[in-house]
Amino acid sequence: MKTHYFFYLVLMDMLINIMVYVPDILFEDRFNGAIMSMLLTIPLSTTLAYLLSIGLMKFPGMGLPEIFKLTFPVWIRTPVLIYLGINWSIGVWIALTNFAILAKRYINPDLSLVAVLLFFLAVVGWGAVQNSRTVLYVTEIITLLNVPLIFFIMIKAFTSSYMRWKEIFSMGAFAFNWPTWSSLSAATYLFNGYIEMVILHREFEGKFTTKYHWIIPIMGLLSFITTFAVPIGFHGLMAVGDYPYPWVVTADSMRFKLGFVERVVFVFLLLYIGISIMYGIVAWHNSIELLKGAFEKTIKGQWQRYFPWILLALLAIPPCYAVELIDQPKLLQFSRLWLNSRLAGEIALVLTVYLLGRWRKTA
């Protein structure tokens, strides 16, 4: 595999952030350090991506379970891998549950939330049990199909007559307010795609390089400008915090005057169905591989074939149970808590892999 697949993963997470309440959290904290959190995130996340890449390069063709097997006893690596596997799954639960709510609200109010969620989970589950190389190939296909249209929508937003640049520039008065942990955690999620390499690094077979990592901060800066500035420009600095789905409402404010579909929001949602499903496939694939590594000694014979499907069935139960009980504010609160804990765990994981790589070099 070539290095450009790594950037597909990074770009995928920069796009999916809209579906996991990152803009909502940033807009809630827009007067309390949201801009500073984005400015701090660019060097922080770029450094973390670089350190993880350096660490993984010392273990060519290996994923996190193999690295931990070389360095940690079973009583340490098993609980850590279980924690990471479940944590990866939570991100999928949030994204797909959120999209089921959006489908019911904007596409067809008569849809059953459980039925929509089960459909998404079935598609994601089928993709997640494929081999890592297939997952990377599908990531490339969906990215190349969806990104040009998403880019077109973003250009249309920036050139729209409804864009009020004065509202965007007025955010400069709050640029130096110190960020909260929540806003920093939400902002760093835009770069989270690099962490998927802890499993998918297996497919790079020692060919992975950090030569082009300087592209990451540029991608992040453009993503922040788009994610944060466009809704403010459309709805105003004060009103943008009143919408539960600011980017969906923003897309619904635009029209294709000469298009087959007039309302941009329908095209926007269809594009993000593809991005959400791809995110779910990659994240659940990693989750399954981490959990397989945790229970490696207990899975033998025919169980090795059925174990991924058993895991998928177990991982699908919580969102199906919760989707009818949880509303959008509660899901936002849960997402905030998950993002806050994710950042601390991500930093610890990156530093661990980096230090293990240094140890292997000197051993």
Automatic annotation (TrEMBL):
The keyword Transmembrane applies. This is GerAB/ArcD/ProY family transporter. The keyword Transmembrane applies. Keywords: Membrane, Transmembrane, Transmembrane helix. The chain crosses the membrane at residues 6-27, 39-60, 80-99, 111-129, 135-155, 212-234, 264-285, 306-326, 338-357.
